[in-house]
């Protein structure tokens, strides 16, 4: 497994996401390349917001409408709209004309044979979209926050090796490291296509010593590239694909001033 990959830095301000895609060529995504888009909620660019809110279809709107809180309804609408927006640009197709299917575990995919794989995760203030061409991808994003019962949750979902690793970490880092473990583990399960239908404790993650780099995966077959990073003090993200890629094949597009540090 190669050492920590440097991300290609392509900072994006919220006011220029639309301009980036409309005025420059679609970023090249070929072979087993992995593209990660980390974008802010809510969408501040008015024209982009109006475009995004028009893109979800009737089923996506109905799903969002079932959310109890208005902020969650808006967040889900923006997440689906942004996904369609990006996929449409990568495929050079009308984003409203894209059709989706789900597997038995609810993981969505394009219904056509476009050979573009994607996965989405969002939290209160950001969305993460991962894109590949040939291999399944899983991504996860979490806001690092106080979690009084984090150790009880860890005991339920972590392997013995992971619990031993957490116990050996500095006390001030343990809660943060639990979120790092969780995002990495969930990214792997989403790449497998099962999500949390598979017992998470059966997958063991070996995180890098630093906040950014490649992580190891045990407990499931196939070669893996699992990338884990903290783009800022408040968030952790992870992306997993079922093949080995080199450091130059990962590109991260992110909000200016919030670099994905190496």
From TrEMBL:
GO terms for molecular function: holo-[acyl-carrier-protein] synthase activity; magnesium ion binding. It comes from the Bacteria. Transmembrane segments: none annotated. GO terms for cellular component: cytosol. Residues 136-238 form the 4'-phosphopantetheinyl transferase domain. The keyword tRNA processing does not apply. Residues 58-129 form the 4'-phosphopantetheinyl transferase N-terminal domain. Belongs to the P-Pant transferase superfamily. Gsp/Sfp/HetI/AcpT family. This is 4'-phosphopantetheinyl transferase psf-1. It comes from Candidatus Accumulibacter cognatus.
